[in-house]
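Fresh eyes needed here. Kindly weigh in on this sequence plus C-alpha cells:
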Amino acid sequence: MEPVWKEFYDKATLLGHDMELLEQGEAVERYFTFATLTEGSLLLSVATPEQRRQRQVTFFTPPVAARQRLGQGKHDRGEAILFAEGAFDDGDEQGVNNHLPARIKAVSIKEKRVPAGTTWDISVRGAQWGIDDLEELYTTINVGRLILEPGARITVQGNVCSMLIQELVVLPGVTAGMQQDFHIGILPTPFSVDLKHGPMDGAHGTHGGNGIKGDNGEAAQVSSTMLGHVLIQDIDPLKMNGRHGTDGHNGTDGTDGRNGGMCKIAEITIRRLEGNLRIYAQAGSGGNGGHGGHGGDGGDGGDGSRGYKLMGGMLGAGDGGNGGNGGHGAKGGHAGNGGLSSNIYITIPDKYEHQVRCLSLDAPGGKAGKGGIAGKAGAAGLEGTLPQPATAGIPGRDGQEGKPGKDGRSRPGAYIFLNETCVQGDLQVTAPQLQKI
C-alpha cells in the first residue's frame, strides 16, 4: 500500500469510519465528541513533534497575544494544545472543561470531485447536537483524492478545522461569468459570537412624530350696523387667542451593530498538489450601527382672531399661539468591530510551495449610525391686528441634533504559516493594547 493511502486509511480508522463504505466510494460522516484536548489533538492534527515545536514559538502572534487576558485567551491556549505544544495557564483548565466534551464532525472520502462553480462547505452548526451556535465546534476532513473543477471551492465557516488531503487536483480555468478568487476559504461564522442579541446591523431608531398645530382663535360673531359692530353672541376674549402648538416628539436611538464572526484556527495538510492553489481567510465585518430617529417638528401656533370696535366699547384682537418645540434627534448606534482571527497552518511538500498563494485580509469594522436630525421649531401664531395689533406668539425652539455612534474597529487578519514560515502577517508588529482589541 502506498504511504499516502496508508495515512488515509489510518486516519479513517482513527475517526471510526466504515472501511467497506469507503471502498465503495461513499463519503462517511460521523458526529461525535472527544473528552480531552489531548484526544482532540490526535483526531485533528497530523503535525509532527518538530512542527508542533516550531508552531509554539510563533503561536502567539501579535493579535493573538493581545487578547490573552480576555476570555478568548483561554480558547487560544487550548488551540495551542491541539495544534502546537501549548500548555494551560493557571486557572485555564476549569474554564476549558466547561466546554468539554467537545463536538466534532469527521468526514472521510476516498475521492471527492467538486463540480465547476460549486462549493463544498464542510462546516457544522450546533443544531446537529441540539445546542446553540456559540459553542466551539470542530470539523475534520480526510480525503484521498480531491478534485476541484474550475470555479469550485471548499470552505469552512467558523469551525476549528483540519483538512488532510492526500492528493489535491486544481483544474485550471473558471466557469463562465465567475471570477475564481480562491479554492480553499477559511471563513467566519455566519453570525456574531458576541453576547448581544439581534441582527448583525443595528436597527434604525424611529422618527419622532410631529407636533400638532394649535387651533386658531375663535372668531367673534358680529353684525355691522351704521353705528358700529354689535356682538351677536358673547365671547370670552381668551378664546380669541390662538392655541399653542404641541412639541415634536424625540426620535429613538439606533441600536448597536454586532461584532463580526470569528475566523477559527485551521490546519491544512496536502501531500500532493496538481495545479495552482489559492487559500483565503478573512473574519467577518462588523455590523453597522443603526441611525438615530429624527426629531419631530414642533406644531405651529394658532393665529389670534381679529378684534372689533363695538358700539359699546372695544373688543381686542386675540394673541397668536406659541409654536411647539422641535423634538430631539436620537443617538446613532455604535458599529460592531471586525471579527477575531486565529492562525492557519498549511503543510505541503517543499516542491509544491511555489504553487500555493495565500491571502488573509483584515476584518473591517462597521459604520457608525448617524445621529437623528433635529426637529424644526413650530412657527409662532400670528396676532390679530384689528382694531389694534395684539401680541404675536413665540416661536418654538429647534430640537437638538442626535450624536452619531462610533465606527467599529478593524481587526487583524489571520496569520498564515506555510510549512511553519509566516507568509501572511507581520510577526514583528507590536501587539496592540488590550483595551484596543
Q: What stands out?
A: DSSP finds seven helices and 17 strands in the chain. The helical segments are 3-14, 19-23, 37-44, 49-58, 62-65, 71-83, 92-97. Residues 3-194+260-287+338-366+413-436 form one domain. The longest strand covers residues 102-114.
